[in-house]
Amino acid sequence: MKKLQGIIILATVIVLNACSSVPITGRKQFIAVSDAEVNQSAAQSYSQLLSDPKTKVINNADAQRVKRIGGRLSAAIERYLKDNGYANQYDFKWEFNLIDSKEVNAWCMPGGKVAVYSGILPITKDDAGLATVMGHEIGHAIAKHSAERISQQYVAQGLGSAIGVAASGSSSALVNIINQSYGTVGQLAMLKYSRTQETEADRLGLTFMAMAGYDPHNALTFWKRMAAQGNGQQQPEFLSTHPADATRIVNIQNRIPEAMKYYKP
Fold it and tell me: Cα–Cα 20 to 30 A to 247, which of 4, 55, 114, 200?
């Protein structure tokens, strides 16, 4: 009986989410975990990171620039979501912080928790470059890629265990699912899906930066600078979570006309 109830619950979740789609791209999604749960877990992790003695949050002119650009991006995105009927699907509590680190990285957690590492600033160079990076990372959050991956892993574990975790409401359960390893076939499938997510985040990021008043043509120069950081020994694309540099640049070039429709300098 419990197994039957679990199957019914999962079937209900699938039906309820069958019509959900990613803004702008329109890609259909299956998400079997609530936004509230994922966002709460992300907010807790973000708070813990910022309060960790090992984390040095910078408060200087560059940090203010990150906040300013973040403010422009988030305001433009919120307007778009409201104007296009997506507002009730998002409850973001935006935060933007610059962290002292040599790592060339930036990310946006579900719920709008953004971190930019100082190591990427020499590559972003200017506001448009920084908007490219932040727009891309925010794209992952707007597309709910984290929730989508968790949902995929629920399915991979089987109906019974998936329902058990989904119904538990446990943040630790979500973390455990994210950290579980897969066999070779599963890994390759997830890597391919990661490349799909990266390409979608590029497309969203282009549009978001355009909405915020940054010329999306600048994204090309940024990604070319990023490509130049490589050592020429990249692994084959089918084994990478990111598109090959050349593939990414071509895809971005092809998407610029779409993004320019939203650009108002």
Answer: 114
Smallest CA-to-CA distance from 78 within 96, 97, 92, 64 is with 92
**pLDDT of 94-108, one tens digit each?**
999 999 999 999 999
Strand partners, 107: 115
Q: Going by C-beta distance under 8 Å and a sequence separation of 6 or more, which residues neighbour residue 238?
A: 188, 191, 192
Are 169 and 92 in contact by the 8 Å Cβ rule? The answer is no
Neighbours of 205 (CB within 10 A): 27
* Confidence band of 176 (pLDDT split at 50, 70, 90): very low
- Whole-angstrom CA distances from 47 to 44, 54, 114, 132 are 5, 13, 11, 25
- For residue 144 the two structure tokens come to 């709910």
Q: Look at residues 196, 247, 248, 146 and name the one whose alpha carbon lies nearest to residue 25.
A: 196
Residue appearing with tokens 């702008």: 24
What burial letters (b/e) apply to 5-36, b meaning 16+ CB within 10 Å? ebeebbeebeeeeeeeebbbeeeebebbbebe
Q: How far apart are CA 75 and CA 177, in angstroms?
A: 33
Environment class of 53 (CB within 10 Å of its CB; exposed 0-12, middle 13-18, buried 19+): exposed
